[in-house]
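Mods, move this if it's the wrong board.
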Amino acid sequence: MRKIHRSITAVARYSASGLALALALATSETPLLAADYSAANAGDALTAVQNPANPSPNDPIIITAPLFRDIIPERQLDDEAIGSYGVSTIDQLISEVQAELGDDELPPLILVNGKRVDDIGDIGALPVEALRALQVLPRGSAVRSGGSASQRVVSLTLRRDIRSATITAAEKLATDGHWDGQRGELILTRIKGSTRANIAFRAGNESRLFESDRGIIQPAPRLPYALGGNIIGYPGTSGEIDPLLSAAAGEIVTVTPFPGTGTPTIGDLVAGANQPQLTDVGDYRTLRPKVRNYDMNATFSTPLTPWLTSTASARFRRNSSAYLRGLPNALFVLPATNANSPFSRDVGLAFYGHDALRGESRQTGGEGSVTLAAEFGRWSANLNTKHNETKDVSTGQRQATFSPIAIADGVNPFAIDLAAMIPIRNDEASSYAVNNLIDLTADGPAAKLPAGPLQTAFEGRLGWYHLRSHSTYSVINPDGDFRRSEQSVRATVEVPLTSRANGFLPQIGDLSATAEYSRVHFSDAGTLNHHALALIWEPVEFLRLRAGIDETSAPAPIQTLGNPVVITPDVRIYDALTGQTVDVTQITGGNPFALPQTTKVRTVSALFRLVPRLNLQLSVDYTDTDRRNFLSSLPDQSAAIMLAFPERFVRNANGTLISVDLRPVNFDSDRERRLRWGVSMNKKIGGGSRVPGSPGTHRAPSPSTYFQFTANHTMVFSDEIVIRPGLDPVDLLAGGALGIGGGRVRHQVDANASLTSGGLGARAGVNWTGDSSLVTRIGSTTDTLNFAPVFLLNLRVFADAGRVLPSTKWARGFRLSLDAINITNARQRVTDSAGHTPLQYQPGYRNPIGRTIEIELRKVF
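Not the wrong board. Structure tokens:
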């Protein structure tokens, strides 16, 4: 708890001025400028709940904006359903809901009280107590609010009047020990009608975890290095040290510990003959780095006129991680001519350095945005301006040389600290990015058709991007300067073809088509296009069908082009061509020659509303994704990749892998076909009546029980990648893996269930990942690594003390939560055909932390 207190204190100090402003807003009794929310003057805004601060169980909770009245939500949550997730902020809630719905190509379009929000950061830090209801509308619904033809809509309804301060503190521990994490959060919120102000301070900390803490078996070092040093033969480092020592020991001596005396004799070395000193480098290698995060987010939104609303936001963040990469090593050569040598021939002295090689990455950034949202009759427009600056700095230590180091005549190696003489160089890579954006969107009905209004949206966008980089890791092009400008236009249209509500061909049901086209000019990549087409058909109310095609061409991100080169020593990988686990020098960074990527996505989806009173739904989504010039960092564990890019995988004269260059490349193509289907339901089970209290006491609703359940199954039918033109496709479902995770998993199941009642709640989640494989080619022999299925079980329980003890003042707004992640402490098992586990695939590498328990204390004032 002391660490949690320090985290919260650090956050408060980080933005003391912002805290003062927020306190003034939160405690002020002066009404904030606001326009009344009502059906008469809010246009497309969600209808306001008349008494949200003290709701009745019979109040309508889920209220749909007039713009979407003909669309039945895919998911809808009232305040009790929101409470069943046991989360603290709106962004956490949206993240969990999105995970239940599955992966989308685009993030959802966010509406707050019917008005579009350009960034989740403008609303995400609000506490869930500010939220009255949440709706998720199906794919394609975002066109009506200026979004993309393939986007979902997440519509949020806020309470009308709330003033709160929320403090959260949490401690997380690994049950296997040696790792913990802390986080703290302070949120100040004020909502008055259509005006809202929110400031959030967040801090987090995670301790480092060493390889020795999880019993990682280390690969045998190339030479018997040790912290205290060992003496070996030279130049034949595996041969006899000296015939004089072998004669004295009565056996051939190939290694002996470095003596502790400044003037050793042959006799002093006999006792340790062939008994080398050993060092567990796992004590100096981190499985997980030490991490610290700080974040401050402030948002203010208010109407300027009855038809114009402004939103301003600012965010500042600082993240850092520090890791250890093992010990440096060196082979010192002691000539026989050195007067201090007791040997009759040259010998080698194998030493580890005293201190681990360190690395650290730091990111500092900030962004600010101003949005103006206007309404003109049935049309709306958003003007968003944004400025973002980010600075990334990576520092690292590595050996300056790996060549043997000769000890000069006259130098006594037994009287000096040889380990301190290992040459170490310090490197730094940095990048500074500045992005500016102006975006204007307008949407509304363009014409009235027999089946309904023709909805259209138009967008114009201007962007300027600048990235400067510098690296001391490489003398070739150490400095980079990349600039990009963007000018784009986009138009979308939704055409209603038939309509039951409007009586136009009602026997067909509701049928509509959406189309989208955009044209973007990039100063460095030329003009690229995007188009999307979709048909949406609801023949009956319980069935919604959608089929669409979306094709996008996009340039490589400017960071992919211009990131500085970083060279990291002693990175442990599995060499799929030799079957060895080796430590290599890894090169990462940008590739200025990366080409634009084209992605075509074909989708067919169905939503069955099976039992409306239970909100029971069945969803089915089929996705066919075809990517050309597929841009990706180069994986380091694949035999196919190593054979296709031999220049990126450098080996020594013995064929041992010593260096890998993983900078991004364009693969020829990638084609994946998959199906995801699932069921969801939520139902309030009884309760909800008012309990009269005694005069002057708080009147609270009686406990009602709420049950929620979701389950999804993803099946991958095919996934093939062509690495380079002319090469055979790599089947990722048949062992043709491109990374350490093994081949593409064919089956995956995830499910969540929650039960809440009267301020008490429990939420369980399971995730099952099927088996996969990785084909290796060791010489002319092919083998297969088998990745076993993994089952993960998580549980979250929480108690609202204010509902359990309604008469106790301190308990109001206080919640205690317990999160158990990976309850069974499962870790994936990887074996070859003989049943052996390669060192790189030890369970500790697959899941370093294992089972964790987190206790969270949360108080709303």
